[in-house]
Amino acid sequence: MPRQTNVGRSPGRTRILDCALAAFCENGYQATKVKEIAERAGVTVPGIYHHFTSKYQILMILIRRVMDDLIEETSNAMDKAGTDPVDRFAAAVETHVRFHAERQQESFVGNTELRSLERDDLTEIVRLRDAQQETFERLVAEGVAAGRFHVDSVKDASRAVVTMCTSVATWYRTGGALTSDQVAAQYRVYALGALHADSPGGAR
User: pTM of the prediction?
Assistant: First the structure.
């Protein structure tokens, strides 16, 4: 990845990232010109290069940021949930769903523009995606070991749950019939049902 310049969280830099994200969603990374990003952000093209070395660096920052944030928020939610395997899994599910509902544009770019990444950067992002998937596999395995989840395949079950939760980004609309919290609560029920989970306290 190119060396970053002026990597602080200045308002101008944040606006450029936001405008680039919107442009990438609408037009795709390849079709978006730096000039368009500058016009959207209300800056000059040299102003873009004051903060970033290239359009590619902007893309990589956006994709890396969304993965870092997702992993951190999931970890924090699990920690707050305590030690019960069902509660920890449910917290991870709700966080994953809410994240994809509330940060749809970043999720979309993160999924569709992997094709635009250079090999080393792609390897790094895939590693982060795998880490999130492995978190769910570990949670399901913990629940199975504790006799709280009942599935034939930990890997297949966890993959199905993550795929279901991630898909929220394709249909959720802010201001629609359900809030992101309501959707997250619904998907918690669906995910626990898919694992044939025992209720808290061990009763089925």
Answer: 0.88
